[in-house]
């Protein structure tokens, strides 16, 4: 398990100054866990018409809502342009984009360059099957039901790297550790 | 230069202002107007604050209870008074009076003092000036008593107590109250039989000072001109605008930015003098063909550092169409906020400057109001337990947290088909089938009846956290008062 954990630590948090992608039903908790771990200010970009809300009371254990700025872009293009500007400015640690349309190659590459210049991490939250080739890694996250744990502590998830530009594909079963406020890997044997 | 003071007294300023604002027949003469009064709530009752001539003719007076006044005069029309608006109106009148002379000061709550020395000839002498002023005030529907004298005290006495506007008569024949005395001194003088100012002047000064204190002698001296009294003119409101006129039109972006830099330096120096910071800047670029291009910049925080503001203009300036060239630039701070110099200590949390600049940049693209932050709110209702506010006009607040776990994603409640007070074994949501693996609850949340909310019309809600065997952990609720099941959120 220790080896497993160490290996996970080399992949998460994903490499800085690049943009990454995450999809799947638990993509939101991946983004929040990452934001909490990086520690700096987080810019959360989404389109203004989007009806769902992220609930600061719910994600307070993951990420302090005081460190979050929410930007509502009127269109997809404005969202990408704002993300590029924010990544380049270097005054935020993480830029989260909730994407509803596929990101083209040019846009994806521009985001990469901006992230490199501003030394910030970019993260796209995608609907399934909408990735851009320019992304450094793509993760798929899904919740896992686990009958053994108490209901208050049921945060078991399966995180899987489905695309990696510089490394192997790998999958872990992880859970949120409320004490350390970190994601920790659950050993494979513990799964039934 | 010899001082010449014009005093203007508006005895019915509040009611005149209220009547001016009303749509009334202007042709009707003042005497035909119905009785009208403004009331102010003081000492636990509505009292008459100001009234028009018709109301006075009915025997009403200031300070009278409104109910008494209504009994005397059933036709009385009344409105609540607004002293702040009256004060603002008087300032407007003071600004208007600057058409006669530059030196205008306020006199109490209902008067103006003008030092017209050297400017009367522009209106055909002093008589012409006063006549012009009277005519304009009458046309504006304002009752104004106007008089000119050599001193401020004398002018005041003539407007408040002079019955006829005969110049050169002096104030000797006016009652002692015209010296702006406090009521106690006035009564004491009346008791001694000193009714007119001439009576006072006849007495030795030493006795007056011994008996009534130095104030009376001071007032007398001020009215006579032996003691000077100043009129403090109203300060000019600072104007935060600068401009640059160019001998040759420019069109390159770098040139425009260089011009903006020069303007910004001057503007920021102005802002610094007044301890102000700009919130909104407008750059107007006039082209040679008389067209004008405008660049708006809304800042995320009040700022006055030229070096920081200049790069924020880059995006706006890049979009400008210079046409045949730009030959005049104007930069104005259309919205300013006080920005005091603050002491830097170890205890003050420095506001990250880079973040403010980023908010400004993003704000100019997607609108400053669209960049928000979460603030905690005091409510049990999940969607009301936080609020979203504009980030540029707020500071982060804490603490965050709740006693019970809350979902990280909330959406408008979506109905599912299920019955009974216990969570269903199987259900379909968003075209997916789920099997309940474990349900935790219920947590009952009652609607906030003091705030009407359509979505909470269905009454109480019993919330359950349902862990499905498919993996997803959903937040379901049951409404016992109108049986039905809904999904409202999803946990991590």
Automatic annotation (TrEMBL), chain A:
**Cross-referenced SUPFAM superfamilies, in alphabetical order?**
P-loop containing nucleoside triphosphate hydrolases
Please, which domain of life does this record's source organism belong to?
Bacteria
**What is the name listed in the Swiss-Prot or TrEMBL entry for this protein?**
Protein ImuA
**Cross-referenced InterPro entries, in alphabetical order?**
P-loop_NTPase
TrEMBL record, chain B:
Keyword set, alphabetical order: DNA damage
Broad class of enzyme this protein falls into: transferase
Q: Which GO terms describe its biological process?
A: DNA repair
Note the Pfam families from the entry. Answer: IMS, IMS_C
The protein's annotated catalytic reaction(s) are: DNA(n) + a 2'-deoxyribonucleoside 5'-triphosphate = DNA(n+1) + diphosphate
Q: How does it assemble?
A: Monomer.
Q: What is this protein called?
A: DNA-directed DNA polymerase
């Amino acid at each position: 398990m220790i080896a497993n954990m160490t290996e996970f630590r080399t992949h998460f948090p994903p490499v800085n100054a690049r943009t990454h992608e995450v999809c799947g039903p638990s993509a939101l908790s991946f983004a929040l866990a990452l934001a909490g771990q990086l520690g700096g200010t987080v810019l959360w970009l989404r389109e203004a018409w989007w009806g769902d809300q992220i609930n600061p009371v719910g994600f307070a254990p993951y990420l302090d809502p005081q460190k979050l700025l929410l930007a509502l872009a009127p269109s997809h293009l404005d969202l990408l342009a704002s993300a590029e500007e924010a990544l380049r400015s270097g005054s935020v640690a993480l830029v989260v984009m909730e994407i509803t349309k596929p990101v083209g190659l040019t846009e994806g590459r521009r985001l990469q360059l901006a992230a490199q210049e501003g030394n910030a991490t970019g993260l796209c939250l995608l609907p399934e099957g909408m990735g851009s080739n320019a992304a450094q890694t793509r993760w798929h996250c899904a919740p896992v039901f686990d009958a053994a744990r108490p209901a208050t502590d049921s945060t078991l998830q399966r995180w899987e790297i489905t695309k990696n530009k510089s490394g192997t594909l790998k999958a872990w079963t992880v859970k949120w550790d409320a004490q350390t406020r970190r994601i920790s890997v659950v050993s494979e044997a513990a799964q039934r | 230069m010899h001082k010449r003071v014009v005093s203007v007294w508006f005895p019915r300023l509040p009611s005149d202002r209220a009547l001016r604002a009303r749509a009334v027949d202007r042709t009707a003469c003042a005497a035909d107007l119905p009785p009208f009064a403004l009331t102010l709530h003081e000492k636990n009752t509505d009292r008459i604050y100001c009234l028009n001539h018709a109301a006075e003719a009915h025997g009403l007076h200031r300070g009278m209870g409104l109910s008494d006044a209504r009994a005397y005069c059933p036709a009385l029309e009344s409105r609540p008074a607004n002293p702040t608006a009256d004060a603002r109106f008087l300032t407007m009148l003071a600004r208007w009076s600057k058409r006669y002379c530059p030196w205008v000061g306020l006199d109490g709550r209902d008067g103006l003092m003008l030092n017209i020395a050297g400017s009367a000839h522009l209106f055909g002498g002093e008589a012409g000036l006063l006549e012009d002023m009277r005519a304009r005030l009458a046309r504006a529907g304002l009752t104004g008593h106007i008089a000119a004298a050599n001193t401020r005290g004398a002018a005041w006495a003539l407007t408040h107590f002079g019955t006829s506007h005969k110049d050169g008569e002096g104030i000797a024949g006016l009652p002692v109250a015209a010296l702006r005395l406090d009521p106690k001194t006035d009564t004491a003088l009346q008791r001694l039989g000193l009714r007119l100012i001439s009576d006072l002047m006849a007495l030795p000064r030493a006795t007056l000072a011994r008996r009534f204190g130095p104030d009376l002698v001071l007032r007398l001296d001020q009215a006579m001109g032996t003691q000077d009294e100043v009129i403090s003119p109203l300060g000019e409101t600072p104007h935060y605008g600068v401009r640059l006129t160019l001998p040759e039109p420019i069109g390159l972006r770098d040139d425009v930015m260089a011009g903006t830099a020069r303007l910004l330096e001057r503007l920021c120096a102005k802002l610094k003098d007044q301890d102000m910071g700009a919130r909104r800047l407008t750059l107007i670029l006039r082209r040679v063909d008389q067209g004008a291009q405008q660049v708006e910049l809304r800042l995320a925080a009040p700022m006055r550092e030229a070096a920081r503001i200049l790069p924020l203009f880059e995006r706006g300036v890049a979009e400008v169409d210079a046409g045949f060239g730009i030959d005049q630039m104007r930069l104005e701070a259309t919205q300013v906020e006080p920005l005091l110099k603050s002491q830097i200590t170890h205890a003050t949390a420095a506001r990250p400057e880079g973040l403010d600049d980023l908010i400004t940049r993003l704000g100019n693209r997607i609108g400053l109001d669209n960049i928000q932050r979460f603030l905690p709110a005091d409510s049990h209702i999940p969607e009301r337990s936080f609020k979203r506010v504009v980030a540029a006009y707020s500071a982060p607040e804490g603490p965050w947290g709740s006693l019970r776990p809350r979902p990280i994603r909330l959406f408008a409640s979506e109905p599912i088909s299920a019955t009974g007070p216990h969570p269903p074994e199987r259900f379909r949501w968003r075209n997916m089938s789920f099997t309940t693996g474990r349900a935790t609850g219920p947590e009952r949340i009652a609607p906030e009846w003091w705030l009407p909310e359509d979505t909470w019309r269905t009454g109480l809600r019993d919330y359950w956290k349902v862990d499905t065997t498919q993996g997803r952990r959903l937040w379901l609720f049951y409404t016992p008062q109108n049986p039905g099941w809904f999904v409202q959120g999803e946990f991590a």
